[in-house]
Design a protein that fits this description.
single chain; 191 residues; alpha+beta; 4-stranded antiparallel beta sheet; 6 helices; 8 strands
Length: 191
């Protein structure tokens, strides 16, 4: 049963995570009663596709990935709902398991994310403010790793922070190149 946050007077500058609807709460109690090894195997099976396609995890140890899997939380956002807001401190690292979301910079949609894309990594790893807003354009299922959980991962696996920073820089360059190509195409169409 999805339970929206029933806050009648929303904060004008809310924490985006307070509006995430959780769909796994009834199941987590059952899963938590399983032996640890079975819970880990279940996490691996449920998230295998996510980890296989993400460059973020290509050089991270299997043990670190298992720990990250235990910390990830499912959620979803409705069409039009902001997931992160440009210029704010990042609260989590997000992985799109299904859906689409727009990248918005300075009020303009610059690109789109979809299945197996991730975002929020740079702000989470470096502490910098987010450089774009991300808005769900369709019903979007996510897995997220909160700042608190990311910090617990880094405490046990210090190399993870650097690998996330490196992946974030690489991803940022790819997104910028894609955006420049899009601008060039739009300019060519105008001429």
């Amino acid at each position: 049963n999805p339970n929206p946050n029933p806050n009648p007077n929303p904060d004008p500058d809310p924490d985006p995570n307070q509006y995430v609807w959780s769909w796994g709460e009834g199941h987590s109690e059952v899963v938590n009663q399983l032996p640890l090894t079975l819970r880990l195997q279940l996490s691996i099976v449920m998230n295998k596709r996510l980890f296989e396609k993400m460059p973020l995890f290509k050089d991270i140890s299997e043990l670190a990935i298992l720990y990250i899997l235990q910390k990830m939380k499912p959620g979803f956002h409705l069409p039009g709902q902001l997931i992160i807001t440009e210029g704010k401190v990042g609260h989590a690292l997000y992985f799109i398991t299904r859906g689409k979301a727009d990248i918005i910079r300075n009020g303009k949609v610059t690109s789109q994310l979809s299945d197996n894309d991730f975002f929020g990594e740079r702000s989470l790893a470096t502490g910098e403010r987010t450089n774009a807003s991300i808005r769900a354009c369709v019903f979007t299922e996510l897995m997220m790793l909160t700042r608190k959980d990311f910090d617990s991962v880094v405490a046990l696996f210090p190399d993870v922070r650097q690998k996330v920073v490196e992946s974030a820089a690489e991803l940022h360059e790819k997104r910028q190149a894609k955006f420049r190509e899009q601008l060039d195409r739009e300019s060519a169409q105008v001429l």
